[in-house]
């Protein structure tokens, strides 16, 4: 009797350009939860106070933030390894502490803006019940992929329920539809859906991570949103958008791939767009920095709406 042929797993090709769903999700939640809009306004007041006081990042030891990674998979190839998850954590810690070796790519004119957030990320060692954990959960689903409707964050819709979203950063790693690489929720939104969602082939630097998004920068970008950063071009296609950060140049629209410096738009010459910023849309190997102004916004979130993380 002939041996049965093994059915090949269906594999979706990785996206060719960066596409983030955070801002679309943000606008949807602002309409669904009116209190979210007021929370955002309150957050901006905190940011301005911090800037007026000249406070950027926490002084002294880093703020240590626990992470739980919920791997939601249908095919075995989507059930990413512990090693792949740990490779992502290593990237986050280098990028947020500004110790990434590729920061040498920053043009000389902006090297002085590079700033450490003084944030350290660790996989959780205790779950919400106080039991020992490796900070990773694994959930088998019947779904081929998830849209940006937060269904991956609920067991009743094929996903995984979050741990306490005030105390942990919840990551969901899964197959995403619509060519999305990820999305995150801004501070002050509904607790039930708070966290970060990343495409499994854009998470970490090992295993299934696929070029040009195999350097872990999708998570760096999305965690930026989680800590209240907007896209650097202000999500418009003209020169009037803003990311609410004073030290990032105005730019017309997102940059993709691997731009060459300088790339001038919106009369921002001679230096042009800060396309090497983590909050643009370039390839992983072309984004290398946060600015002082961005770090100020993120630390205002940690002191404000996100002040229970790790507590």
Task: Describe this protein with a few key phrases.
311 residues, alpha/beta, six-stranded mixed β-sheet, globular, disordered N terminus
Describe this structure as you would to a colleague.
Strands 1, 2, 3, 4, 5 and 6 form a six-stranded mixed beta sheet that branches. The chain is built from five helices and six strands. The chain is globular. Helix 3 links the parallel strand 1 and strand 2. The termini are far apart. It is of the alpha/beta class and 311 residues long. Helix 1 crosses helix 2 and helix 2 (34-52) packs across helix 5. Residues 1-8 have low confidence and may be disordered.
Mean pLDDT, to the nearest integer, reads: 95
- Give, in order, the helices and strands: HHEHEEEEEHH
Residue share in helix: 10-25%
Judged by helices, strands and strand pairing, the structural class is alpha/beta
| Distance between the first and last residues' Cα | 61 Å
Uncertain residue ranges: 1-8
Strand content: 5-15%
Query: Looking at the chains present, what oligomeric state does this protein adopt?
Result: single chain
Rg, Cα atoms, Å = 19 Å
The helix tally amounts to 5
* Main sheet characteristics: 6 strands, mixed
Number of strand segments: 6
* Gross geometry: globular
